[in-house]
Amino acid sequence: MSSSSTGQCHSTAAAAHSASESLITADNSGNKAQSPALRAQTPVKLRASSPAFKPSPIKNRKPSSVASASSSQLRLAPAFTPRQQPRPRQLDEQRAEGGTKGHAQVLPAFESMSVGSDGCVERPPGPINEEFFMKTLPAHTGQPPYMLPANHFAVDEQLRRVLVRETHAMSSVGESDLPAQVHSYHSLSPQEMVDVFGASFPIRQHQIKAQSIADGRCYSLHRITGTQPASKSALGAIDKWKAVQSPSIAQVYEAFTTRAFGDNSLVIVHELKPLAASLRSQIVDARAQVSEAFLWSLVLQLISALRTVHSAGLAVQTLSVSTILLSPTNRVYLNSCGLADVLALHGSLNMDAAQQGDLQAVGHVLSAILGTNAENYIAVQGQAPVVVPGAGFSPDFKELFGYLNHRLTPVVAIDDILRLAGSRVFVELDAARRESDLLCDNLRLELSNGRLVRLLCKMNFITERADSVMDPEWAETGDRYLIKLFRDYVFHLVNEAGKPVASMAHVVGNLNKLDAGSPEKVMLMSRDEKSCLVVSYEEVKRCVEEAYQELVAPTRR
Known about the structure:
alpha+beta; 16 helices
């Protein structure tokens, strides 16, 4: 684009055009493709597949009232369709082996996930089908130094894999004997089964993924079989937990009783954390070796969550390796909150003692994790071996471990834990800020997707409508024929050899100019190459808007 034409365009179009030119690469014949600005001044060869273009005046036309209402009547699908699909295979036993080395490390995604013939997400022993999940964009294919590679304009590959993996984990439904619908939730799929040791006896808790009829989101249903609330008003205790919000807590939404499972079951609805599993299954049972950096991150995230809970005048009371979730990105979440309040597991509750019990439970969690390594045991004469941090841990962590296990003082305080953590709090904060920056940077790359898709939808609503072929008021003349020619120019371009030009830069650049209403001129040629029009993007945009408004007008039938 020349400097004079650039000054006439809006800033949005100029920026998009600059980015689009950097994406142009050499074609198959080895010749560099022309930029969109040069193509606008060069006759464009289009495939001859329509009769000769007969120019007609561009003007507004009255909306049509000829089409019958019965031909355009839509059939609405039901709100949801409960379905049963084959049960997904179990998660890999060593899934968290690489992810427990530090907070910033992300587990390798898609290492063994694929989609079966029925659309259900499975985990076969072979590698993932990369054709389905899109291949990685090439980093650099020999372009000049001033041209950015194609993957510069796409979402970070590692982040994309994690997000797609989470999306498919949320959408998959496993085959089971669960009911089709429970309360206002459908498409139930079994997940993890954990034992909650919040009382003198363990409570078996079945975690089920389900989709809500009300908002279409997926939730985690925690079902306790053969159990009823301690009293009629016990379910109201869950209302206090609804207001507790923290990045390290799986939020509580509601609790109800049901006989849909064939017994008296208590169900507590939590926020679903896709791909997250308990510390017991990922570390303790898997005997995974963890680093000190991971343990500091674990403690700080748990203390952050407990600080929010205690500030609300509540206590978790069920904190253990079974009720703490760990995500592939080493995010930690408190799970099973509110269960002890609904069931009144501890009878008359002393809140100060219960909150002290939560902080003591953090020390028990560390003991369970360190107990997976034989180097963290010391033998005491006449007693069972005791878990202590081994020689590879720093003195600060050993002091923290002793403090949480009441070896230094009988009372544990959150402020003292933060004092022992020291500068490691800033390490955790910096990791959170880096993650936020990564997400914001990738969000900017996708910022205009919705705007361009909306523009594409309008153009396709207008052009080549089968229901308006015999409608004289909606013939492809005037505005609508101009839009059709512009669509051919953007998507059906061919080079000098007659081969299709599939240039994303050409498409994105022209759509950005169209959306911005640039005064830049473009030459549109009919498919038989006998007629051409020179119009501006601003005129094409006006035609699109007027034709679309005419299409959706209430008087059109």
